[in-house]
Amino acid sequence: MYIGVKIPIPPKSKPKKWEELRRQLEAEEVSAVESYRASSVARKHELEKEIQKLEHLAPNNGRLSLIKKLRRELESFNA
C-alpha cells in the first residue's frame, strides 16, 4: 500500500505510533470505499433517470444509440 510522502512514518521502536498509523489508514480506506459506493449509487440513479427521460421522447437514431450506451454503463455497475 502506498501511503504518500506527506504521512510521517514513526520509528520502529514506537509500536503505539505504528498502531495509530494503521488505524488511521484503515479509517481512510473505509471512508474512501464508502465515498465510492455513494457516488456509484448516485451515478446509477442519474443513468436510470436519463434513460427514462430519453425513452419518453420520440425515437431517433442518435437517441437510440445514446440509450444503448447509457444502458451498457448502467449494466457495468450491476456486473
Describe the main β-sheet briefly: none
Instruction: Provide the low-confidence segments as ranges.
Output: none
Helix and strand content put the structural class at mainly alpha
Gross morphology is: rod-shaped
List the secondary-structure elements in sequence, H or E: HH
Rounded to the nearest angstrom, the distance between the terminal CA atoms is: 26 Å
* Mean pLDDT across all amino acids: 92
- Our count of domains comes out at 1
Percent range for β-strand residues? under 5%
Helix % is: over 70%
- Based on CA atoms alone, the radius of gyration comes out at 22 Å
- Please, how many helices? 2
Number of E-state strands: 0
Features:
79 residues; mainly alpha
Polypeptide structure, described:
The protein has 2 helices and no strands. It has helices at residues 15-55, 61-78. Helix 1 packs antiparallel against helix 2. The model has no long low-confidence stretch (mean pLDDT 92). The radius of gyration is 22 Å and the shape is rod-shaped. With 79 residues, the chain is mainly α. Helix content is 75%, strand content 0%. The relative contact order is 0.08. It has one domain.
